[in-house]
Q: What sequence folds into this?
């Protein structure tokens, strides 16, 4: 039961975080950090067992009919992610207490952060497709809340909505993929699908499932063309950027790719799509990163690049590549988390994040600088740091691949790594060295809470770099095994000897130094390429805009409030619906009644009168005249009834018609002539619809009368009506006896209507008596 | 020889209770002085609650009333009807709690309000229980006419009167289509009894197809499906909000009840014929409903389009039922979850609405609501999340079930449209939430005790459906049509 507890304790603490913040004040962060620390400690204790190949599984039956169960599964991959989420989570909470010191919003921020942490832990521990989706969307929502934390700014709100629409929209695509996957595999438990081989690439669903799940992963991990939301998400407070948008949440897409590698990976489609999207993202992020001036934006684009690299490695999918991806994931979380926190400290101390307005902070903030330096070296991929080992492994993994494309990828990788190195140089060198510009405030070293986190993360990057054995068999190998099922893996080492990867590393660093030194001149050349108007971000804006505009048009078109238009649509659709069914299904073998011999002269005359009256009703400009000719139609029909031997029907028709005309005349008495005459075009439209409806009705009648009606009821009723009901008039007997319940119901309806009309008129006259209500 | 029909009145006891109580209530109302009319409202519950209890007791039973010799019952009760009857009665009870303070504050306090509401509920219940097309038409009138009048209850307000007139004219017009469909069905089969239609109809009969088309038009109007939806925004905007809350659920569910029974029990063998029509209507309804909602500034109009969009989602389950009759349970569950979310949303609208001259109905009027009414704003956010279909809400599980039903039936494109339009819907549903939480503004609300009750119930129910949908879905999947044979034998 420990796993559900790990997940749900975070939600519970989030609920009362604001209260704790109210009581504990400055100690809040330290106090709240105890929970993630406890989770971290618990997970660390499990490392030996997991490394030994065991998994921890807890299952709680939740909604069997939806195939949704709370199945939690802790394997090597989940453990690596969960350790990062809880460990960095603790440090971030502590950092927040310094960053948000004396800000009343701290309780809210901490609550959101805990909410996110719990959702993220749920995401990586879920073994059920649908609980995974639920936690996935919860992380999107917490990200929305956190990006929009400073909600008074329009930019914050826009960025928050953008991130939500992109990531949660991707999540819905993923859900569709999950539905198809679970229907096809007949199981929603991920480990079962993997272990029992319930879904393979030969399935007819494979293509759809692959695309849909990849969409979800790419949107979440800011892959091209969804990458644009991540830099905008930098509107969030810096602890949020450090935690969600570099170390953990954006890794959810990568986690998803890794998790589904055994199910979806290894095919040509997988490799082609994932490698090319990852590679493109890697280059794009790296290309944009070093040209930015805002510390956080530099780091954000570098993050995009790194995410692209990891995606690329997972696309290659060999054991070595996955191992490299796992090491890079760990290294990046450590150094990027640290650098973001450093950026936040610099921002707090100096009042700006623009690298052109910063410099000379070394003397003022020595501890922060040490953290920045160590983390920056890891980012640049220099020995003896974990970032270096990750880079070596990347090159090594690609060099083991045969064919032409690895060479291309290596070139791209060297270029991207070099540019990320330049970005690292900017982040470390610009704020701390050089001359001291005029600043709004006097910078001073951050408090313990704000340098502890970055320093610790940076130090871990150094420690793992020096002693890779610490993480090798304990974390990296189990995680890789969980993804590929591999058994033999390269052991991590700092020094491989004078190998090709080593040479590539030297090349990378050399390139980085050259670009760093020439950056100003290069920037002039690149300026024009980065101000394009056709990026995906523009597509996002354009599509939002398009949606609003088309919604406007649609509403105007469909809903102009004009009753006549509504009626036209109803009639038109009905004619179309019924008419098309009629024409397509029954026209070929339908017989029409073409026998006109038994039509009497009187009937023909009456029909002619009806037609003339109907046409003239549309032409009169006086309402009274129009109603009078409508009455003519009614009476003519009644006479027709009479002619065909239905006197009681005719009587009913007579009385109804008379009453209707009288009532309408009374109502319409006060109304003026028709004044708003329709335009010619409208009238033509009306004529077309009316004629179509009329033709359809005519067709009906001809079809109906072609076959003699065989009623199943009439003979019985005629026989029974006198014998049983003692009535000579069959129609009356039907109304009051055989279908007496219907009539009774009809009477009820009429009385209800009567009472209703009475109430309305009473209400009206009451209102009129109160003059103050007028108008 | 003729024998008196078997009455089996126990089948319609809930209806009898409501009808009789409505009449008694009208007399009691004469003795309740003006200004104390809320008592009429509370007394309405005296009829509704026993009717609900009796309806719940009918769960699991199957029977028919008014069975002529050798014929079919006119009215049936089966789990399908009982499930829906429970929905109407719950809606009615919650609507009373919403209405009491609202119509007092709006100056519309008349005892007949509740009388009309009770009769409308009787009509709704009859819609799902009727086993005969004539009776369905009767039920349609019985439920609609009180609603036409209730829509125009705010006499003197132009929008209210306009809405009532439009609703009445278009409603009467579409009823005519329905009636024509009945006539054609009778022409084709010589009967109006659904089970007999099933036995006698022949696929080659041109009339039967045309009849089905006409019936579809009538139902599509009642459920507010595109392109027969146009009355909804105008009517929702003009009618008193408490009436809208009631009819946006009741009338819609009743329309679906009859649609499902006619298609599922009268024309099931024509599934491949009517499925394409329902698919097209469903797709259009989701697209038009969601896109048109995006730019609405008036929250009642927005909820009207939202109601249209939701009819589209419910139709996915109906379309799927052409090939897989069990898919109906997804739509039934959807309506159950939608009931609470929707009435909750309307309760918030009523709390914020200011009755002096239709103010507080714009989305912008929600600016700064969270500052003064945090809990109300949280409830609003929760209902809107549920309407979008975000996990841990009833709206999510409901969408999940209908999408699942669509996928099982192979209607992939329809489900894709459903998913995309759900994303679009986030755009307008979250706007009032955004305004409430992230803007400064003067929004104030008044939450009467009745509203408080409805809000608590709605939040609780939406939460329960979001977290433990299993047992409720199980109930929905048991809500199947009764066996024709048992109606006759069960006398």
A:
């Amino acid at each position: 039961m420990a796993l559900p507890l790990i997940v749900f304790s975070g939600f519970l603490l989030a609920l009362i975080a604001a209260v704790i913040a109210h009581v504990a004040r400055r100690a809040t962060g330290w106090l709240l950090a105890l929970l993630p620390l406890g989770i971290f400690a618990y997970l660390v204790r499990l490392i030996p067992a997991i490394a030994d190949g065991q998994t921890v599984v807890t299952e709680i039956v939740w909604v069997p009919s939806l195939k949704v169960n709370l199945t939690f599964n802790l394997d090597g991959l989940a453990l690596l992610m969960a350790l990062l989420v809880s460990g960095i989570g603790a440090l971030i909470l502590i950092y927040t207490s310094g960053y948000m010191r004396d800000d009343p919003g701290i309780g809210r921020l901490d609550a959101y952060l805990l909410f996110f942490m719990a959702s993220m832990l749920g995401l990586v521990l879920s073994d059920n497709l649908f609980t995974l989706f639920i936690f996935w969307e919860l992380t999107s929502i917490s990200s929305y809340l956190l990006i929009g934390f400073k909600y008074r700014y329009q930019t914050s709100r826009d960025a928050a909505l953008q991130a939500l629409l992109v990531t949660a929209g991707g999540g819905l695509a993923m859900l569709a993929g999950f539905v198809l996957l679970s229907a096809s595999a007949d199981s929603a438990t991920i480990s079962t699908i993997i272990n029992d081989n319930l879904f393979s690439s030969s399935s007819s669903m494979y293509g759809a499932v692959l695309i849909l799940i990849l969409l979800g992963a790419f949107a979440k991990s800011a892959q091209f063309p969804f990458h644009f939301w991540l830099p905008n998400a930098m509107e969030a407070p810096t602890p949020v950027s450090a935690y969600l948008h570099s170390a953990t949440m954006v890794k959810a897409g990568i986690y998803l790719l890794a998790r589904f590698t055994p199910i979806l990976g290894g095919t040509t489609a997988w490799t082609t799509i994932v490698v090319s999207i990852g590679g493109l993202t890697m280059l794009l992020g790296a290309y944009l990163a070093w040209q930015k001036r805002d510390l956080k934006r530099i780091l954000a684009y570098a993050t995009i690049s790194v995410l692209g690299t990891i995606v690329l490695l997972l696309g290659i999918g060999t054991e070595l590549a996955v191992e490299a991806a796992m090491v890079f994931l760990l290294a990046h979380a450590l150094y990027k988390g640290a650098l973001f926190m450093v950026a936040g400290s610099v921002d707090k101390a100096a009042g700006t994040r623009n690298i052109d307005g910063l410099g000379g902070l070394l003397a003022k903030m020595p501890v922060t600088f040490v953290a920045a330096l160590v983390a920056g070296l890891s980012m640049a991929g220099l020995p003896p740091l974990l970032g270096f080992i990750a880079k070596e492994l990347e090159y090594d993994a690609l060099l083991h691949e045969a064919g032409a494309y690895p060479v291309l990828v290596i070139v791209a990788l060297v270029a991207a790594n070099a540019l990320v190195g330049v970005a690292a140089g900017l982040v470390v060198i610009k704020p701390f060295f050089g001359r001291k510009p005029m600043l709004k405030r006097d910078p001073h070293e951050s408090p313990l809470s704000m340098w502890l986190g970055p320093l610790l993360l940076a130090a871990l990057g150094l420690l793992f770099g020096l002693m890779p054995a610490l993480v090798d068999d304990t974390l990296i190998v189990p995680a890789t095994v969980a993804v590929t099922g591999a058994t033999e893996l390269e052991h991590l080492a700092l020094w491989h000897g004078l190998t090709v990867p080593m040479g590539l590393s030297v090349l990378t660093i050399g390139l980085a130094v050259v670009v760093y030194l020439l950056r100003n001149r290069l920037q002039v050349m690149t300026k024009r390429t980065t101000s394009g108007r056709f990026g995906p971000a523009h597509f996002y804006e354009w599509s939002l805009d398009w949606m609003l505009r088309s919604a406007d048009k649609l509403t105007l078109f469909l809903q102009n409030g004009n009753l006549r238009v509504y009626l036209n649509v109803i009639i038109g659709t009905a004619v179309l619906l019924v008419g098309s069914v009629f024409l397509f299904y029954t026209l070929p073998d339908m017989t029409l009644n073409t026998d006109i011999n038994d039509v009497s002269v009187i009937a023909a005359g009456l029909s002619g009168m009806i037609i003339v009256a109907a046409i003239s009703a549309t032409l009169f400009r006086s309402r009274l005249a129009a109603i009078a000719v409508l009455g003519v139609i009614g009476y003519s029909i009644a006479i027709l009834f009479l002619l065909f031997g239905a006197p009681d029907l005719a009587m009913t028709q007579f009385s109804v018609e008379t009453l209707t005309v009288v009532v309408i005349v009374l109502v319409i008495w006060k109304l003026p002539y028709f004044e708003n005459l329709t335009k010619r075009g409208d009238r033509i439209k009306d004529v077309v619809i009316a004629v179509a409806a009329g033709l359809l009705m005519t067709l009906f009648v001809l079809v109906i009368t072609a076959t003699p009606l065989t009623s199943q009821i009439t003979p019985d009723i005629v026989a029974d009506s006198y014998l049983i009901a003692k009535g000579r008039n069959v129609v009356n007997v039907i109304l009051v006896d055989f279908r007496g319940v219907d009539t009774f119901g009809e009477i009820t309806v009429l009385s209800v209507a009567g009472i209703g009309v009475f109430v309305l008129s009473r209400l009206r006259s009451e209102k009129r008596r109160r003059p103050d209500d007028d108008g | 020889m003729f024998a008196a029909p078997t009455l089996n009145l126990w089948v319609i006891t809930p209806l009898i209770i409501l009808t009789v109580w409505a009449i008694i209530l009208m007399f009691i109302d004469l003795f309740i002085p003006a200004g104390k009319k809320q008592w009429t409202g509370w007394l309405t519950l005296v009829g509704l609650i026993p009717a609900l209890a009796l309806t719940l007791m009918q769960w699991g039973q199957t029977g028919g009333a008014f069975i002529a010799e050798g014929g079919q019952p006119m009215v049936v009760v089966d789990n399908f009807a009982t499930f829906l009857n429970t929905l109407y009665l719950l809606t009615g009870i919650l609507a009373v709690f919403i209405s009491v303070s609202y119509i007092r504050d709006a100056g519309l306090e008349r005892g007949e309000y509740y009388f009309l509401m009770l009769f409308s509920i009787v009509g709704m219940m009859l819609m799902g229980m009727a086993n005969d097309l004539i009776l369905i038409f009767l039920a349609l009138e019985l439920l609609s006419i009180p609603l036409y009048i209730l829509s125009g209850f705010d006499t003197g307000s132009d929008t209210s009167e306009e809405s009532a007139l439009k609703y009445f004219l278009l409603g009467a017009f579409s009823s005519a289509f329905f009636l024509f469909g009945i006539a054609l069905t009778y022409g084709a089969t010589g009967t109006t009894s659904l089970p007999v239609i099933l036995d006698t109809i022949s696929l080659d009969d041109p009339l039967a197809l045309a009849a089905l088309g006409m019936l579809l038009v009538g139902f599509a109007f009642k459920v507010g499906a595109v392109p027969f939806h146009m009355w909804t925004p105008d009517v929702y905007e003009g009618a008193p909000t408490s009436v809208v809350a009631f009819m946006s659920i009741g009338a819609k569910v009743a329309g679906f009840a009859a649609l499902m029974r006619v298609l599922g029990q009268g024309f099931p063998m024509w599934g491949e014929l009517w499925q394409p029509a329902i698919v097209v209507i469903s797709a259009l309804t989701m697209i038009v409903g969601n896109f048109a909602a995006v730019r609405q500034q008036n929250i009642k109009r927005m909820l009207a389009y939202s109601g249209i969009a939701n009819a589209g989602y419910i139709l996915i389950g109906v379309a799927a039922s052409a090939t897989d009759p069990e898919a109906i349970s997804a739509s039934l569950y959807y309506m159950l979850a939608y009931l609470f979310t929707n009435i909750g949303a309307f309760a918030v609208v009523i709390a914020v609405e200011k009755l002096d001259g239709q103010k507080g109905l714009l989305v912008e009027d929600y600016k700064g609501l969270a500052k003064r009414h945090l809990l109300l704003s949280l409830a609003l956010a929760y209902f809107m999340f549920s309407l979008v279909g975000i996990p841990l809400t009833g709206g999510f599980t409901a969408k999940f079930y209908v999408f699942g039903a669509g996928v099982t039936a192979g209607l992939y494109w329809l489900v894709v449209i459903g998913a995309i339009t759900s994303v679009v819907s986030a755009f307008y549903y979250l706007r009032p939430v955004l305004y409430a939480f992230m803007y400064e503004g003067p929004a104030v609300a008044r939450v009467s005790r009745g509203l408080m009750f409805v809000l608590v119930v709605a939040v609780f129910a939406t939460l329960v459906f979001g977290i433990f949908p299993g047992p409720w879905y199980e109930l929905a999947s048991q809500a199947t049509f009764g066996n024709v044979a048992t109606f006759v034998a069960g006398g």
Remarks:
- The radius of gyration of chain A is 38 Å.
